[in-house]
Amino acid sequence: VPPGRFVIDDLYPTGSGGDLLVRVTEADGSERSFTVTYASIPELLRPGVLRYGLALGRHNNSQISKAPYLGQVTVRYGLSNLVTGYGGVLLAQGYQAASIGGAFNAPIGALALDVTHARSELAEGLIRQGQSVRTTYSKVVPYLDTNISLAMYRYSSVGYYDAGDAFLLRDMSRRAQSVSGDELQARKHRFQVSAAQTLPGDWGFLNVSLSSQNYWRKSGTDLEYQFGYSRQFGRTGISVNLGRAKRVDTSRWENSAMVTLTIPLSQDFGGASYSASYVQDRDSHALSNTLSG
Q1: Cα(261)–Cα(277) distance, rounded to whole angstroms?
Q2: What is the pLDDT of residues 147-172, one digit of tens each?
Q3: How many whole angstroms separate alpha carbon 119 and alpha carbon 91?
């Protein structure tokens, strides 16, 4: 670059945070370097960048006899280096939800705040409406390369149901069961904190998380702990996650484990890849396969 001020605007670091080491070599051969620490959350975009998504499909739940069709539209736009606006709409028979929010690149870390309004027709003539407010915070601790996320602190009003719960209640009504909306406990608060640490050399990554959740019209709190480790072996990635959770309705601790293997199918960065995940918990197990690219 010419002498004087310069800007690098085409570098997209991967992951949720880290340190960028910038080394400047002057014309006389001398060098100087400095570190730029960054943290990000998924909603943040660069100025002028527009991303949108459209999803159409059916809700798949073995407890529901008739899977409803649904459609979802999401939009994100980078307003400046400091602010990104985003929103979305989800539409289905008997259920509509709309959200709007903003993400902020603040000196103390990356922040996001959004509000969702949902209207649920649980049965003929029984309509519930409510709001859910979510805040997200992410921060990288400089030089330690530790990413701390205070993710999804959510407060929901008593009439708010997410799509899955609303579909289940509506299906119960369709099968001539009396529905009042109290059969499923409406969530009130949810809090989650997580941290990820890069290990020295090629030893991979560690992550831990803690989440809690309580409900309207019901005492007690759900608790869940997660511990994970991931590492690359050449271009193949493997991760192991162990979990321990206690639910309000059972009041007992349950353990779970998940192993994921990711294999690239292309030499190109960001090309096709295959991923397989196996999950085992107290009462069930599942295997999922994903092909992307």
Answers
A1: 6
A2: 677 666 788 888 898 898 888 888 88
A3: 10
Token pair listed for 158: 């008593």
Alpha-carbon distances of 264 from 16, 21, 24, 51, 277, rounded to whole Å = 21, 28, 34, 25, 15
In this predicted structure, what is the pLDDT of residue 263? 92
How far is it, in rounded angstroms, from Cα 22 to Cα 107?
Answer: 20
What pLDDT score does 248 carry? 82
Return all residues near 195 (Cβ < 8 A) that are at least 6 apart. Answer: 146, 147, 148, 149, 207, 208, 209
Provide DSSP, the chain: --SS-----S----SSEEEEEEEEE-TTS-EEEEEEEEE--TT---TT-EEEEEEEEE---TT-SSPPEEEEEEEEEE-SSSEEEEEEEEEETTEEEEEEEEEEEETTEEEEEEEEEEEEEEETTEEEEEEEEEEEEEEEETTTTEEEEEEEEEEE-TT---HHHHHHHHHHHHTT----S-SSPPEEEEEEEEEEEEPSTT--EEEEEEEEEEETTEEEEEEEEEEEEEEEETTEEEEEEEEEEE-TTT-SEEEEEEEEEEEE--SSTT--EEEEEEEE-SS-EEEEEEEE-
pLDDT at site 41: 63
The one-letter amino acid code at 124 reads E
Please indicate, yes or no, whether the overall pTM of this predicted structure exceeds 0.85: no
Tokens read off for 156? 């929901």
For residue 292, give both structure tokens. Answer: 């992307």
Specify the pLDDT at position 137.
85
Q: Which residues of the chain have pLDDT under 70?
A: 11-19, 37-42, 142-147, 150-152, 177-185, 269-270
